[in-house]
C-alpha cells in the first residue's frame, strides 16, 4: 500500500523564505523545509495497482504552466487552531489544474473529494499552541507575501510516516505545457 497525494513542489528559495518564518509558537510542530508544498489532492492509501491507474490518468492530463504567488497567513479551525498555513494568490489556472486532476482521479476509480479545495501551504500542525504566541505570530506575519514562482509541473508523491514526521518521495512528475 502507498499513501499518496498530488502536489506542487516549491523552488529551494521559496522553501527557505517559508522556513525562516517557522518559529516562535510553543505547541507548533513545524513542517520540515524539504516537505513544504501545495497539495492539490490528497489520495490516501491505495494499492500499487491503483497507483498505476492514477499515474496513467495523470499522465494524460494537459494543462498550461502558470506563475503562483503566496500571500496571507492563517489557521484552520480558528476556535481550536490545528493548522497554521500560508495562502496563495488567486490563480484561475491553479483552480483549473485542480479540477482536471480531480476529474482524472475519478476516472481512475477514486471517489470524489468531498472537501472544498482551499489552496494553502501547511507551515505547522498545532498541538495546544500558546494562543498568545499564535496571535503574535499571526499579527507579525499578517502581510506575508512571496513573489510568484513558475509552476511547470506537478507530482504524484508518496508519504512515509516516521516518528520524526513524514518523508515525501516523488513517484512521478507531470509537466505542464509552456504557455
Terminal residue distance = 37 Å
CATH architecture: Alpha-Beta Complex
Number of strands: 9
Supply the CATH class.
Alpha Beta
Return the string of H and E elements. Answer: EHEEHEEHEHEEE
Global structural class: alpha+beta
How many domains make up the 3D coordinates?
Answer: 1
CATH-defined superfamily: Cyclic phosphodiesterase
CATH topological fold name: Cyclic Phosphodiesterase, Chain: A
- CA radius of gyration is 17 Å
Number of helices: 4
User: How do the strands line up in the largest sheet?
Assistant: 2-6-5-4-7
Structure description:
The protein has about 180 residues and is α+β, with helices and mostly antiparallel strands. The chain has a single domain, classed as Cyclic Phosphodiesterase, Chain: A (Alpha-Beta Complex). It contains 4 helices and 9 strands, in the order βαββαββαβαβββ. The strands form 2 sheets. It has a 5-stranded antiparallel sheet, with helices on one face. It has a 4-stranded antiparallel sheet with strand order 3-1-8-9, with helices on one face. The longest helix is centred in the middle third of the chain and has 16 residues, at about 90-105. The termini are far apart.
